[in-house]
Amino acid sequence: MRLATGWSSEGRPGPCGLAVHIAPSSPQGQYLESYADLLFIKGFDAGEPIIYMSTDAGQPLTAVLERATYVPALNDAPYNGGDDFLGSARERLFGFVNGQTGENNKEAQGFAHLVLDGHASVDANAGNTELIAALRNGGDLLNTFGDFPTLKDPRHAQAYSPMWDAQLGLWTDKAVRAKLNTRQIDEVQIFNLAASRPDLLTGVDPATGQPAPYGASGVSINCAVIGFTRKAPTKNLAEPLPNSQFPPR
């Protein structure tokens, strides 16, 4: 397997591209080079750039956006809003509907960015040079993850799960007009923002696209973390505010 992460040494989307390529099979009786270039996705955890791979999703639209396989049974994985509490297989992932867009925009993030700048509607293959160029310029969702295996707090390092429970954020018109819909890279900072500034960030109802209380949105994705590309995430960038949703509650 060969990997190009698309991150610069500063942790920003850089000059390397991502591609999908499966080597042709070897003729019978011969062994030729076998390799695969896989589409890895860029994101963040505790302020650090990471990469992961989406394989399955429990909702049709989620599967399309993640370029993953639609597996309806994942929608019933325990349990929506469970995070890493007892009986839950899910961990939190943070996405944004209407973050900033624009090629080479260091504040770009989210679904609008993916669709407009990341060519979400086209096939991901090594011959699609337009897509590869878009990914070179950071055209991923750039989601933020919750618990991660390298976090120093065992309570959060050991709670990592590849089954993610999406907390989708919707920036308000006020935030968008003031260009406060900036890239978010830390779980605690996101929860603090949602708790303290509902005038800027709310949740969203995926069925209607309308604002909703911030929290789990009923979107489940199986996407295993592959690694980090600069430094290991070890600690969140902020302390939880009293009324934020960061556990323990």
Describe this structure in words.
- The chain has 249 residues and is α+β, with helices and mostly antiparallel strands.
- The chain has one domain (21-228).
- 16% of the residues lie in helices and 23% in strands.
- It has helices at residues 60-66, 111-117, 129-136, 154-157, 173-177, 187-196, and strands at 21-22, 36-37, 41-45, 48-57, 69-70, 91-96, 143-145, 163-171, 201-204, 211-212, 216-228.
- The termini are far apart.
- The model is unreliable at 1-21 (pLDDT under 50).
What attributes does this structure have?
alpha+beta; disordered N terminus; 6-stranded mixed β-barrel; 249 residues; two-stranded antiparallel sheet; single chain
